[in-house]
Specification:
single chain; 66 residues; mainly beta; four-stranded antiparallel sheet; 4 strands; flat
Length: 66
């Protein structure tokens, strides 16, 4: 019988310092000359604090802009 393992965290996502702050997550797209190309990163924006870019394939964040 096939069993599903417990999920493993790839990266710890940021949380806002303010209790009422919000976090926003979205896909990353590269711009080619004629079309939009979806990339393998996820962007996480924390309300007024930071923007983090995570690589889905490797786990750790690629860029952090505070």
């Amino acid at each position: 019988m096939l069993e599903i393992q417990a999920p493993l965290p790839v990266a710890q996502l940021p949380r806002p310092l303010d209790a009422e702050g919000k976090s926003f997550f979205n896909s990353v797209y590269g711009v080619s000359t004629l079309k939009k190309v979806k990339r393998h990163e996820i962007v996480a924006a924390v309300d007024g604090e930071a923007i983090n870019v995570y690589d889905v394939n490797f786990g750790p964040f690629v860029l952090c802009q505070v």
